[in-house]
Amino acid sequence: MSLRKLVAGNWKMNGLRISLGELAPIGRAATAAKRIDVAICPPFTLVAQAAANADGIAIGGQDCHFATTGAYTGYISADMLTDAGASHVIVGHSERRSANHETDADVRAKAEAAMEAGLVAILCIGETDKQRDAGRAGLAVASQLDGSLPRTATGDTLIIAYEPRWAIGTGRTPSSGEIGEMHKLIRAKLIDILGTEGVRVRILYGGSVTSHNAAEFLSVPDVDGALVGGASLTAAQFVPIIEAAENVSQ
Ligand code: PEP
Predict the structure, then answer these.
(1) What's the mean per-residue pLDDT of the chain?
(2) What atom in ligand 1 is closest to the CA of residue 230?
């Protein structure tokens, strides 16, 4: 079954109000691309303004807390993101898993909070280079998925992003064959856990996606879109990725 692709941009800690100017050309490309969905996850400070101005683009947060309210200085809840106009949120990004020591249980609680608040959770999983070199990439990813995935997830409320940690921001990528192998494994695990609903959950690939490799990666079976970091910061780099996704979705 072929799922509608999503091209999502993660701006990380990049972007001032002036950067929102990138959204107009991205929005035009997204509106022209009828067969795919497009999302941008700017920093929290820009979410409300982006959501108010983005045409044809879904806006997401980059993280949320598992609690709805409380004494959690500096954190943002899923409800706050919904209130600001977001429709999606990234949870479990590897930069947060490593820098903030987020566990699978933490990530699952965040994904549950996101879904509860009406957001689509983009749940990131991916192996380290050590795990891949040791031939344990599949085991590591399956275990992360098992630990992080809310059992109530559906194809409408959750998206998986497979992002090998060693490929993020490095310019190094797995081969198409390796990506296909991992997405197949993730699909099987999703079906194992969620039953038939697992067939509907989109699986994005992320890690050094650019306009040069997007068409190749997006043509791999079970690659239902891309999560893009560096190449999502400007329309000049991101629009060709949107166009590649639209073209391979014919
Ligand atoms: C990311 O941050 O999720 C990511 C995939 O980054 P990049 O595209 O820069 O590797």
Answers:
(1) 97
(2) 9
Task: Please enumerate, as own/partner, the contacts of 101-109 that have beta carbons within 8 Å and a separation of 24 or more.
Answer: 103/147, 104/143, 104/144, 104/146, 104/147, 104/148, 105/147, 106/66, 107/147, 107/148, 108/147, 108/148, 108/149, 108/150, 109/66
- 208 within domain boundaries: yes
Q: What residues are annotated to the active site?
A: 93, 163
- What pLDDT is stored for residue 171 in this prediction? 97
Query: Which residue spans within 82-234 are E strands per DSSP?
Result: 88-91, 120-125, 158-162, 202-206, 225-228
Domain with 152, as residue range(s), is 26-248
Structure confidence by residue, pLDDT tens digits, 189-200: 999 999 999 999
Overall domain count for the chain: 1
CA 99 to chain centre: 18
Give the pLDDT mean for 29-35: 98
Query: How far apart (Å, rounded) are the C-alpha atoms in residues 149 and 142?
Result: 10
Does residue 7 fall inside a structural domain?
no
- Global pTM reads 0.98
Is residue 20 situated within a structural domain?
A: no
Q: Is residue 17 part of a domain?
A: no
Q: List, for residues 219-237, the tens digit of each pLDDT value.
A: 999 999 999 999 999 999 9
Assess contact for 186 and 203: CB atoms under 8 A.
Answer: yes
3-state DSSP helix/strand/coil % of the chain, to nearest 5: 45, 15, 35
Most ligand 1 atoms within 8 A of CB, residue of 208, 218, 223, 232 to mutate: 208
The CATH code of the domain that includes 162 is 3.20.20.70
**Index of the ligand 1 atom closest to the CA of residue 12:** 2
